[in-house]
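Lecture 7 notes: from sequence to structure.

We start with a single chain of 312 residues. Read the sequence below before looking at the structure.
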Amino acid sequence: MLMNRIVVALGGNALGKNLTEQFEAVKLTARALADLIEDGNEVIITHGNGPQVGKIDAAMNALLLEDPTEEKTSLSMCVAMSQAYIGYDIQNALRKELTRRGLYKPVVTIITQVEVSNDDPAMRRPTKPIGKFMTQQQAQRLSEQYGYAIAEDAGRGWRRVVASPMPQYIIEIDAIRAASQEGSVVICCGGGGIPVRRKGEFLKGCAAVIDKDFCSALLAENLNADVLLILTAVDRVKINYRTPDEKSLDSMTLSEVDRYVGEGQFSAGSMLPKVQAAARFVSGGKGRKAVIAALSDAGEAAKGNAGTVITA
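Now the structure, written as tokens:
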């Protein structure tokens, strides 16, 4: 019997930081996902891609630094590559785990494009660093030859920076919905989706990185999910983090989310987008809940017995 439709957003700890780590990490991730499926839930999976897309982009930039005549690989293409190889590892690990439990479920990765707005202010203010550190001379060369935005990163060197716009529309949403309703476990919207903008009737990739938690919230809303489950490296959301007054939260209402965000309780590069994405999903319909929890607590978190539960 179907219990809940759950969109599961996997954080970086579910994937590791390189190919070897990822291969091992997804085995544990597959167990947590299989627990949810075995309990009768309809599961749709999203994931981050920070280390992976950074490595792909760095490899492509290394070719450009070696040979200026080499053709540039767009960032949107790098995101597509990361979606495919991360999805490949997750779907194989999950299929193996389900088979081991005597469960048959097709598992499929859908390469997903996500539309962003030309008018999003973030498109004019690239701030998201990606790829490896470079010398100022190397960064300047890529900037002059290929138009990359570059910035010095906390005294550690220079990096490429890109925009991080809000997701507006998931292009493949009908395919995702159809595959899920037919019984497949769908992996989609990897890394927040491949960022695209409309050019007349067509779509064109752009140099941006979409936050995967905001995209996961949009996906959950589009699918009319019951639960948005954001799995990360911590067991609960915390306030007064790393102070003597640190407190773990079992639950938050939307008004409490607003208060804590206003107090600056959450880091912009870490917990803040998770909390804001969770609140956005919950505020969009009655009976919805979002949970931010550790990967190891996925099964209990989906039932509301672990992690931080956000409700209206």
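Residues 33 and 246 are 30 Å apart (CA to CA). Keep this in mind for problem set 3.
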